[in-house]
Amino acid sequence: MKTSLRIAVSVAAFGTLSGMDGTLQAGQAKSASGAVTYHEHVAPILRKNCETCHRPAGKNVGGLTAPMSLRTYAEARPWARAIATKVEAREMPPWFAEEPRGVFKNEKGLTDDEVRTILAWVKGGAPEGDRSRALPPQAETTEVDNDGWTLGKPDIIVRLPEPYLVKDEDQDVQGTFAVKLTRDVLPQDVTVRAWEFRAGTYSAAQNNAVHHMCGGVHPPGADVTASSQRSGDEGGKELASLGCSAGGAEPFELPEGFGRKLMVGGTVTMGMHYYKPAGPGTAFKNQPEIGFYLARGPVRHIVDTRSIGTRAFEIPPFHSHYPVAAATTLKKDTLVFALWPHAHLRGKTARYTAVYPDGRRELLLDVPRYDQSWQVTYQYREPKLLPKGTRVEVLMHFDNSEVRAAKRGFKPDIPVWFGPRTQDEMMLGFFTYAEIEPTKVVPVTARRQ
Amino acid sequence: MLLLRRRFTLSSLVFFLGGCASAFAGQASGNAPRGGDSTVKVEIALGPGREAAVEYSPVSGKPPLASPGTLYIKNAVRLGTLELGTPSADTTLELRLDDHGGAWRLGVRNPQSGTEVGNVALAPSPVAATSATRAVALLAEAKDAARLVISWNGREVSSPIQFLAPPPSRGLDNGRPNEPVNREHFSDATIQGRSQMLSQNNLTALTFAGSRSVSVSYLRDGLSADGPDHARAASAAPGSVIELTQASVPWLKTETPLRFGSYVIVAGPHPRAHSRSYGLWLKRVSNGWRLIFNDQANVWGTMHDVAADVAEVELAHRAGQDAATPFAVSLVPDGPDRGQLVLRWGRDTWSVPFEIMSSGR
């Protein structure tokens, strides 16, 4: 059974974009010669939808550790049949939100035409086609140029000074590492527009052992004994949180005017959760890091991440659809940049709903087939404005059945509570946001990566 | 009834925790008893480390604690003027009710050493009418304070309990940077689960003879008496289920079947599940109020699903004087196998009696 967070081609599927039932037939786009070829027809599809994960770097914990790169014909051709199978089943690319459509900039999914194109290519023998029509390489994401960072080379990298050893006998390890922002790391106070987590484990096997990584930024003199994992406190505001990253998550860049402040003498915390079987030969060293990207202009609004969740629940044994919910009422006008529902092995569905002060309800996110292996952060194309007094409700369902237990590797015959281990559960609806004053609402456009 | 005749103001409610003897594991005497053959155990938790319980025999014809009762505390408390317990430790003490020429006091004794720890003066409360109730209750009065109340045959005496500085919460790791904690995949998580729940909920429980426990928990500081939810409740139309926009639904958990009126609230839907949970919803009806038991125990107070209702029982209601009482629920013992479920919010108090059903009924 599959318990790791590894991104693999066997991740559960998501529905179609156009509502078709998956019975697409090959043979849509064709070249002048009549054949569907890689360079002319397939490469553009893979670049747009697949290469952010299927790339050679593999150093980022945020899910970009697909087992194979698909950037070139030589890389893609051996996987042609597998690609066809997965896209036809709508298992790839991974996107688990059913609604709403068109509001998240990292929304993935192939059109029916794109699926037909790929099927036709494979059916036709997966020909390469005319090399003169090959797409230019994506220079900014080559490993040499940016060492595998998704957003490009960071301006500041904060790294755990010494690797941490996860020992053979360790199974489920959690801890927070604190790194002082000394002047050799941070010469002066800065504001940053983006940050990216890297687990510091660079083999597929080691990345599987990183359940998640959370980050925090603390000003000089702050009490860093408060774990960065308290970004998960339901309804509470973790002033220092940078959020978390886990398998399937993608970093993103904030719009102009929004960001975080790093201060000399402050501290960056990295909350790590490792999950692996115990046994000889399973030990590994881990040296996590966070890359920060400087803001290009003044930061007027501080961005934070908090969660809407609860620690007070008990999932009964063998219950296949147990609801757990929480809510919070916003005290100020709030711009929301991203949503990240988080649960563990039994997480089944997740839904965010906004209830506006006038009583109107709006579905913000519906994930009907939650998969703990894919910790997708749903990033708004345009930040979502929720006025003061809006109640945001998060409802999750959990499946503690024997059927799911057999697939995911947990015990269904025990009650389950909130807890830090992968075998425990969490019910947390994270959101990244900035509180704004009503008079300072300005149109913003999310910066494209 | 004990609670309904209370003279002093309660700022929050009593929560009795059932089935949580493991929370007291590790003390010198081993796991705290979960209710012996003839004892009742009342518990209160106002957060992790702010926990206390009293176990006693509800003996007929005598006041409770005429024979020694047992006080279990986590960390340190001040009972009256007496400081008891030790930070970060579980303590077990014996209590005995003594009459000193009409002034009642509680004797506290260390059962391990046999030494007397001290005495606590008990303040009498006027009781409106004689009652045959023999009970001990722990009633929440503030965020970190409660009251120990003892009543029998028309008398009621009490002492304040102040919870003293519990250890700081350590979050999900151990609170010490650069010192990760390793846990086993399948080790027992009962204590940790309770601690996580108490980090945000108050809890009250009764454990009856035969280790049959009932508990109710609710979000701490969730619903004030002057908030929008109370205002809407006060003006709710008949037929309305009261919404709680600022809190989760109160959570009843029981290890034993309970009879509320003509309804039997079952426990354990599966042979391997020893308890069952219910959400509690208030409903306004034309001639008063009702309490709904709902299968969804852990949803928000705006998510009532009528399809998951399992029972609806009449509530007694009265309006009191104190308008400031925040929403709270308490379980009050009323004998060796029964009690009252009491809800309070502002001036309103609702209650319904229940009894433990023995196996086979």
Task: Give a structural overview.
The complex is a heterodimer of chains A (449) and B (361). Chain A is of the alpha+beta class and 449 residues long. Chain A contains seven helices and 19 strands. In chain A, the strands form five sheets. A five-stranded mixed beta sheet of chain A has the order 1-10-4-7-11, with no helix packed on it. Chain A has a four-stranded antiparallel beta sheet with strand order 3-8-5-6. In chain A, β15 (347-355) and β16 (361-367) form a beta hairpin. Chain A is globular, with a radius of gyration of 22 Å. Chain B is mostly beta strands. Chain B is 4% helix and 45% strand. Chain B has two helices and 22 strands. Chain B has helices at 190-198, 228-234, and strands at 40-45, 51-56, 69-79, 82-100, 103-109, 116-121, 123-124, 135-142, 145-152, 155-164, 181-183, 201-208, 212-219, 251-254, 258-260, 263-265, 276-285, 288-294, 309-319, 328-333, 338-345, 348-356. Chain B has a 21-stranded antiparallel beta sheet that branches. In chain B, β4 and β5 form a beta hairpin. Chain B is globular, with a radius of gyration of 20 Å. At the A-B interface, β3, β8, β13 and β18 of A face β11 and α1 of B.
- What is the number of helical segments of chain B per DSSP (H or I, 4+ residues)? 2
Shape of chain A: globular
Head-to-tail CA distance between termini of chain B: 26 Å
Poorly predicted regions of chain B are 1-35
| Form type of chain B | globular
Write down the oligomeric state: heterodimer
Class derived from helix and strand content of chain A: alpha+beta
The level of helicity of chain A is 10-25%
* Poorly predicted regions of chain A: 1-23, 58-64, 140-144, 227-239, 439-449
H and E order of chain B: EEEEEEEEEEEHEEHEEEEEEEEE
Helix content, binned percent of chain B: under 10%
Q: Helix tally of chain A?
A: 7
